Amino acid sequence: MDGKRAGYGHGLRAVLSSDVRFMWLEITGRCQLRCVHCYADSGPESGHGTMTAAVWKRVIGEAADAGVRMVQFIGGEPTLYPGPAHAHRSRAGAGP
What we know:
This protein is an alpha+beta fold. Helices cover 14% and strands 14% of the residues. It has one domain.
């Protein structure tokens, strides 16, 4: 879901303060394990959500433009996300 459809419409720049330099992105709920203690309730049957690789890439770009410099992918198991490998790369770590 993009920000406009969610009712935000102004992108991440309007939400993030200039002090935000790090963010977590939960890109999938899928995980190969079934840990009973999992806070995210992830597992092999969990989905990847509704955001496409293109939307994730846009979110990361907007975050970088807003000053975020580090992104940590969480989930489930982020390496199980089916998008192309470059969708996991971030402009946020590329510097100004």
